[in-house]
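FAQ: What does the model actually see?

It sees only this:
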Amino acid sequence: MPVPKHIREELSQIIWKEADELDWIHLNIHEKSGQYKIWAKDERIGQILSRYMSVERVHPYIKDSLLKPYAKSKKLERDDVLELLGLGSKKVAQEYIKPLGFSLEDGKIICWGRALDWKIVLLSTFERAQERTSYEAFSVILTDSHGKFSSMKYQNIVQDASTKLGIESIHFTK
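And it is asked to produce this:
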């Protein structure tokens, strides 16, 4: 039996609020797994969901149906990136996935991803800029820059690699 829409929305509100309080995006896999178990047993969440599915399905349902949209809502989107870089009026010519990015009509290539994936993001930006002579490796945004990636030592390493690859600017965000 499917979970009624109003129930799913109520549960999403509870879980999203708690996820914000837990700083969900920065939790590691083990911390998230433990929290899924807590929510699955919680009378406000898991017990309600168990009315519509087997107990074994509650944990995966919370993860896939309630928290994937939450995680997606916290990621940078194209318009966020344009605003962050002060390029709000520029037109996007092509969008990229894995890692996320786009090219502007003027040939500027912009990519973003987690600081943990900095090598992939920088190399993808460089590679995409090589596709045409009119392209330019313009900017990289590295999100989730916490832990070692909040230190100047690591940011300088990434900045140095960025400069060597001809990327004009790099930004670290939390």
